[in-house]
## 1
Amino acid sequence: MFLKAPAFDYVRVDSVEAALSLLKTHGDDARILAGGQTMMAALNMRLSSPALLVDISAIDALRQIRLSDGVLRIGAMVTHSEIEASDIVRRHAPLLSMAVTHIAHKAIRNRGTWGGSLAYADPAAEWPACVIALNATLIAQGPGGLRKIPAQRFYLDLYTTVLNPDEILVDVEIPVGDRQQVVAFDEIARRHGDYAITGIAASAQRNGEVLEHPRFVFFAVANTPFQAIKAEAACHGKAPAAVVIDAAVAALAVELEPIADLTSSSATKRHLAGVLLRRAIKTLASKN
Ligand SMILES: Cc1cc2nc3c(=O)[nH]c(=O)nc-3n(C[C@H](O)[C@H](O)[C@H](O)COP(=O)(O)OP(=O)(O)OC[C@H]3O[C@@H](n4cnc5c(N)ncnc54)[C@H](O)[C@@H]3O)c2cc1C
């Protein structure tokens, strides 16, 4: 294993336009550098060897969390720690506040960014599942301007998104203001701060005892976040009595074929996903 990165050029830009211009000029030889928490390890292990790193950390326009017109907007360069500390996020997107402390350790959360995690598309990462559960829209900027992409359509495969090489993820819009929305987040990891063995981000509209339009999005089970559509259908429009929860877990077992990782078999992950789904439905039904 290498511990030193190959030689590369480095440019720190202060606008998205400057970054896009460099991506256009250098094509596949250039890579965006955000918080560097994944990129630097990839360079040092020589899993990636770009000729040019385009550092976007000085672009202030990407560092904002703001609320307007029923939409919470979180810029790509907002760090995990800034989300953790944000009262606006806690009030309007509590799912993110629940999830964030599960991401790595404080030192990594201080540097790692929301946009970097979303764009990197690690199948075990928390944020990709959260943005799908929250029906968010990701905004990319490229040579042709801004492009809005529903979170459900953003992830294509392992570490692969619909972003083009000449595009940058700049912002994420999360619809808020629905007072009936309830959310749940849970994951199982070997140690706190490790990547999850299996995790779930969930949301629903609660109408009295009834859960409507539930979203159950699992991570660390497939090449992309996995939305359990059959389990959602088993729960939609029903008060989650034991029989409904059993039906949802049974539906999940049919639709989910987890991919094993170095520590956990497919069967283990399927079992844990069922446990997490059961807990999440109970949480959606009982609190928030
Ligand atoms: C020990 C350790 C444990 C970790 N544990 C977890 C964990 O439990 N859960 C978790 O989710 N993450 C975990 N991470 C990853 C961490 O959350 C990173 O912050 C995140 O994956 C990448 O964010 P970054 O800002 O550091 O991106 P960088 O490392 O700078 O970039 C990552 C990739 O995304 C691309 N990129 C970055 N920003 C953009 C953008 N705006 N537009 C387009 N492309 C972009 C880069 O070109 C690069 O390919 C861990 C990391 C480490 C080192």
## 2
Amino acid sequence: MIWNLLIVLCAFIGMELFSGFFHKYIMHGILWRIHKTHHVHGKGFFELNDIFSLTFGAIATLLVLLGSEGFDWRFWVGIGIITYGAVYFVVHDIFIHRRIKWIEHSNLRYLQALRRAHKAHHAYTECNPGEEYGLLWIGKKYWSK
Ligand SMILES: [Zn+2]
Ligand SMILES: [Zn+2]
């Protein structure tokens, strides 16, 4: 069991690293036309950028299904990605962007710093340059007001 939890944890941390990389070099690169819909806000609830979450969700679901017979590593990697996706959705879509009006404020310094870091990312509306591409692992400077 401990190994499975370790796989979940590694997948979770791996997703933060991977998504930071993917965000910086792919979304703010060749796929900027899609990601742009998240930086330049339209009025609708959905944005074309949601396609990324859907794709990662589909890959994770597939891994869970493929690994569900013997609960092998694919199952746990899928669980790790889904957990990351859920945290990402709550922090990024609900807490920071308030797509659903649920969590308005937080006294947690970490969450305040996260929001500050991501708002700094959104201060840029062009493909390049930019800053703070990761979500949960943020630079030190955002911790102080
Ligand atoms: Zn971006
Ligand atoms: Zn955002």
